[in-house]
Amino acid sequence: MESQAKGEGAVWAIGMMSGTSCDGVDAALIHTDGSSIDDFGPTLTLPYDGAFRARVQSCFGGKGPVAAVERELTERHAEAVRQLLSLAKREKSEIAIVGFHGQTIHHAPARRQTVQIGDGGLLAKLTGIDVVNDFRSADVQAGGQGAPLAPVYHLARAQGFPKPLAVLNLGGVGNVTWISEDGALLAFDTGPANALLDDWALRHTGKPVDVGGALAASGQASSAALAKLKSDPYFALPAPKSLDRQDFKALADAALGGLGPAEGAATLVAFTAWSVAESLRQFPEAPREWLVCGGGRHNPAIMRALRALLRCPVRAADEVGWNGDALEAQAFAFMAVRSLRGLPLSFPGTTGVPKPMPGGRLHRA
Fold it and tell me: Is the domain of 355 the same as that of 260?
């Protein structure tokens, strides 16, 4: 990682992430200089109620009540900051920066488009702390994928681990960071993770997730439906590459039509695991271990399927002392400090951008 200029020491930073699963706001506090992390504060999650989750999802594609949802989303993030400061027993004056990812409602990097709603200026005003948001636009405008962005944080956390190492995040969409022995990075979205399964579970059980993987575990995957899902041309594309949460929705609706609840859930779990295993074809060398973070690691059916296909150690990130639920929020705290200091957030191997790119937009409180 980069060395810091003299006098640029570590600061306390808050990071917040509302991912493609649309399940809530994750917030985390870390102490960092933007190159390494020397202390961790508390973390929290503020879940979205079903009504707000539905309003967020109604904005996908840039339609619906975007302005009203953006304001409410920002206010919910401000509440997360207030609660995190209380939990940490810290004053806002002790926090140098808030990294505010916002909520992705549209992602089409081939058209140089990516939209994350969330009002950085309003959040700075509501919290009294400087805010960095809009992390992806500069990368996309420069021809990059704009995602994934967490690899630079994964690299900072992976010091001392045997390599090559794969860090897999299973949110609404899956993404992987491959780290070589010399610290080179390759990263890309693998395919669906929880989004299709969550939507399926909500439709068939009334619950927003397949709790404990029970629905999927009670069924058998449909080989015919799985073959249709595997046919998506995305999997033949070279890395780096990225996805919108909705990219597989039409294909999945067509492939799963007529399947029962358990059979459909089992098919989606098999599809997620297969798409992760397909990523091995992109790596220069097979990883020695996979560390899994994000909500998908809580689904035993997904973890069993991954272990069966990857045939090497697959561990939840928590098993090595990482907070698998807060890792992405921590990453945006880390990137906010990097943004303040003009350090790159994305690289040719992580987003396909032509050269290492800084990013983010600063809002003063």
Answer: no
Helix (H, G, I), strand (E, B) or coil at 228: helix
Q: Is the dihedral of CA 171, 174, 180, 184 positive or negative?
A: negative
Co-location of 304 and 157 in the same domain: yes
pTM recorded for the entire structure: 0.93
Is 35 among the domain residues?
yes
Q: Average pLDDT in the 43-71 region?
A: 95
Distance in angstroms between the alpha carbons of the first and the last residue of the chain: 29
| Inter-residue contact 187 to 151 (CB < 8 Å) | yes
As for how many domains the chain has, the answer is: 2
Please indicate, yes or no, whether residues 50 and 139 belong to a single structural domain of this protein: yes
DSSP labels, 122-168: HHHHHHTS-EEE--SHHHHHTT------THHHHHHHTTTS-SSEEEE
DSSP string, 346-358: B-HHHH--SS-B-
Burial (CB < 10 A; 0-12, 13-18, 19+), residue 82, is middle
DSSP-derived secondary structure letter, 198: H
Instruction: Give every CB contact of residue 235 below 8 A, 6+ residues apart in sequence.
Output: 191, 275, 278
- The span from the CA of 98 to the CA of 19, in Å, is 17
pLDDT (tens digit, 9 = 90+) per residue, 246-285?
899 999 999 999 999 999 999 999 999 999 999 999 999 9
Question: Which H helix or E strand runs over 310?
Answer: helix 300-310
Q: Is residue 96 part of a domain?
A: yes
- For residues 201 and 314, membership in a common domain is answered with yes
Q: Which two tokens stand for residue 279?
A: 């990523």
Confidence of residue 245 (pLDDT cuts 50, 70, 90): confident
Residue 171 has what DSSP assignment? S
H-helix or E-strand spanning residue 121: helix 120-127
Q: Considering just the CA atoms, what is the radius of gyration of the chain in Å?
A: 19
Report the distance separating Cα 158 and Cα 306, nearest Å: 21
Q: Determine the pLDDT at residue 246.
A: 87
Residue 213: give its domain's CATH number. Answer: 3.30.420.40
Residue 5 inside a domain? The answer is no
Query: What is the domain range of residue 83?
Result: 11-146+324-363
> 275-293, pLDDT tens digit by residue?
999 999 999 999 999 999 9
